[in-house]
TrEMBL record:
Gene3D superfamilies assigned to the protein according to its UniProt record, in alphabetical order: Vaccinia Virus protein VP39
Keyword Transferase: yes
Name this polypeptide is given: tRNA (guanine-N(7)-)-methyltransferase
EC number(s) recorded for this UniProt protein: 2.1.1.33
Pathway: tRNA modification; N(7)-methylguanine-tRNA biosynthesis
Binding positions for S-adenosyl-L-methionine per the UniProt entry: E58, E83, D110, D132
Chain residues that bind substrate: K136, D168
Keyword Methyltransferase applies: yes
Length: 228
């Protein structure tokens, strides 16, 4: 099945993989991969073991620090990690194997296609943490947050579900706020400045987030709730 490029414009591969990482890509990833060429299940919980109560999605998980921590902390929740970079996949597969984590499924492609494939109201939370900001004005159409993806998240999140966004790029934070605030389907949960200046409770800092802090860049932590 051919897929359009959608919102994905990045590199798929960086540094050469080590031998064991390449082996995990060849042998473990196929067991965890979501194949959107197949019909979507009635509920995404069907992709996981019995007893999975709900499913969350993290888009562009990078090195996997946040996704691994969340999956470990919530064993009865299913997690889908979307990451088009082969090196990011290799890193998280190494951690999944080492920690014997069974509640993560992976999608090595365009998140917009995954959102279009998934059944309605099938996710309780969507996380987008330190996405590529595409800072040049002519590239803004390549940012993940667009009116079309906000509409897709509206379809996938039930009332009370959340979209969480983290970025140390002020312009992208303003862009995200503008897109979510003009949607009648989402409410920004911040009541005071501290609500977006500090991470939410039990947030696991990513490698990129720690680097940004060391270099003096402050991130914003934005939470939006799906309205009835």
């Amino acid at each position: 099945m051919a897929h359009s490029r959608g919102s994905f414009f990045g590199r798929r591969k960086g540094h050469k993989l080590r031998s064991h990482q390449a082996d995990l890509i060849d042998n473990l990833l196929p067991h965890l991969s979501i194949d959107i060429a197949l019909p979507a299940p009635a509920a995404l919980t069907e992709l996981f073991d019995d007893g999975t109560g709900n499913v969350r999605l993290e888009i562009g998980f990078g090195g996997g620090e946040h996704l691994i921590a969340e999956a470990h902390a919530f064993p009865n929740t299913g997690f889908i990690g979307c990451e088009p970079y082969v090196n990011g996949m290799a890193k998280i597969l190494t951690q999944i194997e080492a920690l014997n984590i069974g509640n993560i499924r992976l999608f090595a492609g365009d998140a917009a296609e995954l959102l279009a494939w998934a059944p309605a109201r099938s996710l309780t939370r969507i996380d987008l943490i330190h996405p590529d900001p595409w800072p040049k004005r002519r590239h803004w159409k390549r940012r993940f947050v667009q009116d079309a993806t906000v509409a897709a998240m509206t379809r996938l999140l039930p009332p009370g579900g959340e979209f969480r966004f983290v970025s140390d790029i002020d312009d992208y934070c303003a862009w995200t706020l503008a897109h979510l605030m003009r949607s009648p389907d989402f409410a920004w949960l911040a009541e005071r400045a501290i609500d977006w200046l500090k991470p939410w409770p039990n947030y696991t800092m990513t490698r990129y987030g720690a680097k940004a802090e060391r270099e003096g860049r402050k991130a914003a932590y934005l939470r939006f709730r799906r309205l009835p």
